[in-house]
What we know:
- By secondary structure, the protein is an alpha/beta fold.
- The chain has a single domain, classed as Spore Coat Polysaccharide Biosynthesis Protein SpsA, Chain A (Alpha-Beta Complex), CATH 3.90.550.
- It has eight helices and eleven strands.
- The strands form two sheets. Strands 1, 4, 5, 6, 7, 8, 9, 10 and 11 form a nine-stranded mixed β-sheet that branches. A two-stranded antiparallel sheet has the order 2-3.
- A hairpin with a 2-residue loop joins β2 (27-28) and β3.
- The mean pLDDT is 95.
Amino acid sequence: MSSTAAIILAAGKSTRMKSDVPKVLHEVCGKPMLSYTLDACCEAGIDRIVVVVGHQKERVIAAFSDRSNCSFVEQAEQKGTGHAVQCCKEALDGFAGQVLVIAGDMPLVRGETLKTLLNENTKTGDGITLATTILDDPAGYGRIVRDKLGGLVSITEHKDCIPEQLAIKEANPSYYCFDGRYMFETMDKVTNDNAKGEYYITDAVGILLSEGRGAGAIPAVPPEQATGVNSQEDLVVVEELMTARAEAEVAR
């Protein structure tokens, strides 16, 4: 897939980790968690990867300096996920293929899931496609709001959900695939008119729908792969899941 690229968001400080180590360098089964995301991108056939770094960027860059397919872009100020994508504008100047945007703190991601997302975007031709997950307890996740025909309407953050939306089990684990022709143009239209004053990548859905460029979502992410790391407790959970995965693969 020479016409695909990936942006991996790895700039956060994450004070909840209570550690001097950059979050994406915390190890899961002996490897920095970011390495799993990079490997999944390679498994999906993506050979052009831009990693957005910020907090202790030198340490993150040094840890992956041997990855010839990676370049690094600094997000000096943490202004949200949409801003992080915008920081990659120069690095992907002129790129018109598909662009995956995923988080660097979700090491359980698999290449086959990313392939499914890329294939769905190719099939629909939408300006953005999301890979979603179905959770028994989606508390804290943005909900996938669909119309009566099943079409994507919006992503509503948990704190903004009305009671009917809180009952939705389909959630957003932050797996995105953009049509690169429209991505940066769309991000230019995202505003920070919200409580945090940040630019959210999720606002791209409404913009692309309003412009007739399409936005869709496919429930392709198993709950395990929606598990991110925001604390030491999360790290323990992910380590256990990764160990169980490895043991299951050996047993096959």
